[in-house]
Design goal:
Length: 183
Amino acid sequence: MKATEVPEITGAYLFEPTPYADERGFFCRTFDADVVRSVGLDPHAFVQDSLSRSVRGVLRGLHLRSGAGEAKLVRCSNGRIFDVVVDLRPGSPTFRNRAFFELSDETQTTLYIPAGCAHGFQALTGTADTSYRIDRPHDPAEDVTIAFDDPELAIPWPLPVTSMSQRDREAPSLAEVLKHRET
């Protein structure tokens, strides 16, 4: 497994496994504490694993947590997703930068998203299972959502949106969220 820094988002990393393939299929390690530790992250900081299943065109996000935020490891274990990260850490040198990734079951690449960054994704295949490993227990009172179609972000979602939660449909603009965070 190798770790590669994401240049658009300071502190974000891609963890790419080394698959061992043969006639049966493949095997790969999707989490390695030593590799995580090698980039300065505490592998024991992750306290909760979650899984979402989405069908083609479903959009989830853009989500982040208020307060201390939430760091996460995200991987598409089945299917393919278009994954988006937006750096919303005011002191970050990459503040307001966006980064886009395709995560899939073919590569099993894991994306590390630092606390303070917004995250969202769209399912590109009939079914897409997305695994999350987060560093704090979820508290719905800290949930923050940003409009997926905010013109300031201009995210090039690859498919028409087939479904999303009401919370995501009614999400405020990036400007509104940033204004609220400053007060």
